[in-house]
Amino acid sequence: MTAEIKTVGFVGVGAMGEHMCRHVATKSGKRVIAYDTNPAPLARLSQHGVEMATSLSALAKDADLVLLSLPGGPEVEAVSEETLLPAARPDWIVADMSTTPVGTTRALGPRYVEKGAVFLDAPVARTQKAAIDGNLSIMIGGPEDTFAAVRDVMLCMGPEVTHCGESGCGQIAKILNNMVLFQTGNAIIEALTIARRNGMDGKLLLEIFTKGSADSFVARQQGLEAMIPEDFPEGRFPTRYALKDLSYALMLAEDGGVPAEGAELISKRLRKAIDMGLGENYWAIVIKAMEALADEHRDR
């Protein structure tokens, strides 16, 4: 269906995208060009053979496959409307690796198809460290033949590349993955706060969890590695991004007529953390919001 992919264009080389782009450049054997408004990651990527595009339009013209790693739906819509859709042509592929509302994905897709191009949703899961290590999980929605055409490029960024179904299904998988992540995080946060308020060491509690049925990636990654040492750096999947992703899950729940009280609860706590000025910190800092809520409850 598609012509051979010789040049890959990467749009957005931030906290995740820089490392994803590096892996494509060093493993795929293809020419890689990148565009970002921040020159610093582009300079670093040039050391790995990545070419700096003079403009987004130039990248769109040169690339056979365009990969987007942007903050969210509004940015994906903007680059599509302003540059990519006008440049779309037969046998051209755009794969959106951002986390984008399903409605946006399914609205943009047919407009690319009208020009003979394909718009895939290809969001990623796992952490920034996974992006650094080339260990991401990538969930793809769209035609099976286009999935087959891009699979080898995607495997450069991680070992798990899954075709999830028709357009939008990759985003559904990613959005619901994050919904479960945040709700599990909320359970860990509640358990930690309860334990501490009753005189038990939080680190010991989570270590016990890892030996029993409450063991989870969240207990180990967000709990022991972030909440216990209070390591909540800015620039590593911040709280405001978490709330954005959760809002997409709540949209899906509303569209499906499904009550999602658990998602609504952690959404309120994420908002509380943002109101406390913690919107740019790693999202596990929502434990600070839980502690504040506990203080408010105690003082009533």
Radius of gyration: 20 Å
Give the count of helical stretches: 13
List the uncertain runs.
none
Helix content range: 55-70%
Structural class: alpha/beta
| Largest sheet features | 6 strands, parallel
The proportion of strand residues reads 5-15%
The count of strands amounts to 9
The arrangement of helices and strands along the chain is EHEHEHEHEHEEHEHEHHHHHH
Shape summary: elongated
Overall pLDDT:
96
N-end to C-end Cα span: 65 Å
Adjacency order of strands in the biggest sheet? 3-2-1-4-5-6
SSE topology sketch:
Layout: E1 7-11, H1 17-27, E2 31-35, H2 39-46, E3 51-52, H3 56-62, E4 65-68, H4 73-87, E5 93-96, H5 102-113, E6 118-121, E7 124-125, H6 128-133, E8 137-141, H7 144-155, E9 160-165, H8 169-197, H9 202-209, H10 217-227, H11 239-256, H12 261-275, H13 286-298
Parallel strand pairs: 1-2, 1-4, 2-3, 4-5, 5-6, 8-9
Antiparallel strand pairs: 7-8
Helix pairs in contact: 3-4, 4-5, 8-9, 8-10, 8-11, 8-12, 8-13, 9-10, 11-12, 12-13
